[in-house]
Amino acid sequence: MKKYSLKITVILMLMAIMLASCGKDFLNPPQTDAVDDQIAFRVPTDLVTGMHGVYHSMTRVGFMGRNVVLFGDIPADKINKMAAGDMTFQTIEAYNFTDNDGNLLSTWATGYQIINNSMRVIDEGNRMLNDGGPWSAADISLMHTQIAEAHALRAFALFKLVNIFGLPHSTPTHDNTGTMGIVAEDRFIFSDESVQRSSVGDAYDLILASIERAKTHFALGNRSFRPFYMNYAAVHALEARVNLYMRNWQGAITSANAALQASNAVIEMNQDRFIAMWGEPAATHEDIFSLSINAAIALAASSLTAFYDVSGGSINHSFYYEFDSLDMRRGLFVRHTTVDPNFWRPMKFPNPARINNTRVFGAPEMYLIIAEAETELGTNLDAARTALFQVAQRNPAFTTVGDLLPYTNSQADLRTFVAEERARELFQEGHRFFDIRRTGVLMTRPTGETRLNIVDWDASRFVFPIPYAEINVPGNRVIQTPNWTANLPR
Q: Please, is 95 exposed, middle or buried when counting C-beta atoms within 10 Å of its C-beta (0-12, 13-18, 19+)?
């Protein structure tokens, strides 16, 4: 792992915690590269301060503030960069990037900041619990809650990284669990260590283990629904998504239902409210977990809002016509005014102040997970249609579950409709490219709508390269994916 960027992050985190808990002692600070570990975390609220740093990393440009979301959309077939001449993610759209791509490096580095700093909270929280200090019941609950959130955010970051830099866990035709994944260590990684990549399967094992630990600690902590935190319902939502990618259909159904029950999240069916909610600072009743991007965090020119405004992020023309003319989701597209009026701008990040929240998990995704999993199980297609209807009814052509029957009469028809509905519902939320990879569907882009035409490409065999700056560290054992360029769409 690229140690110097990780070391700086850990040092800054320790400094922030010390400033929050040591009064005016910070006026005469010790050397920050030799700080005593036992000083950094002394009371339960220090864990809260540590988690603030983890959440801040989640909102950074390299992760859910922009890059990780765009890696799920721009390389795929529904959203493009063709409307603009600037280079923001243009190389990703055109597949002419190298292993020296700055966005890949930023995502890798930020992901491991989240992973390692979460592990620091876990280790220190467990130490305080084991020490049995003068903690009240409220203190103990707080510590368990922070540890639970840290386990879950660590699992989330690992999941995102392994799907960008490794093959999908499995597809209808391939089991990729033995292929090269990412660095997945079940411990804090110190700055002078030499580490190596684990397999995709080992990374998923660690993700699932972290999810189980999060649920264990939440059982002893605060399980109230807090949509701007990695709450108890969000842990189940993450588990549902992970199970879906693993093709564990029953596990995906169980976890998605648990997420919906714990959050009470529902689908917004008022069109005006649906359109307006994307630009509001408050959580919506569809949210299970969203990252609050406020004025203090605003990413300005590097935000998702800016990408879809001045940087020219647009939907393909053909995608616009995949929505019925009365579908409320069509109201989320407007013609570009700052780039090219002939291109449609998707508006899930509309706030001109560029402080839009980023949805991580929501009710629509959970219903679509249930619909897909029930379809793949094939034993209760009516259950698949019932879950699918919860989202499909955004199109007023579907007023009852029965209205779906002409389009979902067979398992194959259902499979196709669910995939199409995931594209219509989850655009701009970073799902499409990974859906294509995990389902093994050959990808085709409409001719002339992106910088690179693609026909019948098997994206399930493609991985993004490990950043060159990561593997070019003396003594490092992280190696590049062999022949990664061989699977580029050419």
A: middle
> What counts of helices (H) and strands (E) characterise the chain?
18, 6
What is the per-residue burial (b if ≥16 Cβ within 10 Å, else e) of 43-70?
bbbbbbbbbebbbbbbbbbbbbbbbbbb
Does residue 121 sit in helix, strand or coil? Answer: helix
Q: What share of the chain is helix, strand, coil (3-state, %, to 5)?
A: 50, 5, 45
Work out the average pLDDT over 245-265: 98
What kind and span of H or E run contains 439? helix 432-439
Q: Which residue reads 């019948």 in tokens?
A: 456
Q: Determine how β-strand 333-335 pairs with β-strand 287-291.
A: unpaired
Neighbours of 387 (CB within 10 A): 26
- Nearest residue to 405 via CA among 414, 397, 396, 392: 414
Please enumerate in sequence order all residues whose Cβ is within 8 A of that of 337, keeping only pairs 6 or more positions apart, or say none: none
Angle at 380 between CA 250 and CA 265, to 5 degrees: 60
The backbone region for 475, taken as left when phi is positive above 0, alpha when psi lies in -120 to 50, beta otherwise, is left
Q: Which long-range contacts (CB under 8 A, 24 or more apart) does 197-200 make?
A: 197/466, 197/478, 197/479, 200/162, 200/166, 200/167, 200/169, 200/176
Question: What angle is formed at CA 324 by the lines to CA 323 and CA 327, rounded to 5 degrees?
Answer: 85
H helix intervals, 132-270: 137-165, 200-218, 232-245, 249-263
Residue 25 has pLDDT above 80, yes or no: no
Could you identify the residue written with the tokens 């992050």?
9
* Confidence check: pLDDT of 285 > 50: yes
DSSP reduced 3-state for 420: helix
> Cβ(52)–Cβ(17) under 8 Å?
no
Mean pLDDT of the chain: 90
Percent of the chain with pLDDT over 90: 77
More confident residue, 123 or 18: 123
Q: Report, as an integer, the average pLDDT of 76-89.
A: 88
